[in-house]
Amino acid sequence: MVELSPKHPRYHSLLIREKIVDGFRKGLVVPEGLIAHGRGECFDYLIGEATIPPALKAIRAAAAALITAKHPVISVNGNAAALVPKEIVELAKLVNAKLEVNLFHRTRERQILIAETLRSYGAKEVLGVDDELIAIPEVFSERRMVSARGIYLADVVLVPLEDGDRTEALRRLGKTVIAVDLNPLSRTSRAASISIVDNIVRAMPKLINEVKDLRSNYSLEKIREILASYNNEEVLKESIRYILNRLTELSRSLKLITYLSVDSRSTGF
Ligand code: ATP
Ligand code: MG
Question: Which of 132, 160, 246, 260 has the highest local Cβ count within 10 Å?
Fold first, then answer.
């Protein structure tokens, strides 16, 4: 790992990037995962690398969906396991969700490595590796294979960093799909029931806190109401408007980073 100074202006972003690269070196993340991360970084730049108000609404609804689910499942891929393994296990314990490894680029080694990573953070059971798998319709990648005791049975599935095809397929099967995706325009975001437009690194701790907060301050009836009144289309539109307004503001107030000595040398003053 490279030594990063907290004083570096891009410290947090670089720290996350190092986690992904480290995951790649360990074999958790595939090269395609690095590219997907880069796309995420771009949208993170656009939202200002902070959790935006519409994401907070989605996080609240997601917590309500997980609390009221009969059979919640958290689907885990390489990037998620590299970035937030501890939080994934903590959330699963908190809402009694099953953990399932589900990979687009599926190899047995990677499945085992991801399951081991989750176990090293305290997961007792990890599905999708050695248990019975069933193919779900209309998914054309290896992600169509899901655990008979996990996603196949699930009523609510949390899919951090998911692919559009599978989100759509899971919705067609009648499942409530919670996505974490920095891109509000992706098929995943548009097909999910609840789209958290935020970096998974920021969203997961907030989701854990939200579950705790709802549980200790609201009745089950009120939590159901929060979920029922949630409008994902509105939240996605709000996310896009947030980016639009931010860019409009920046287009007016953008400050150049100037280097006087270089400027004066090059212009001869
Ligand atoms: P879709 O299949 O939904 O149309 P896509 O093909 O554009 O989306 P994929 O490569 O399938 O994208 O998945 C990568 C997605 O994950 C991107 O939309 C990217 O913004 C998002 N992403 C990457 N890293 C993160 C992260 N750390 N937190 C949240 N989202 C992320
Ligand atoms: Mg895709």
Answer: 160
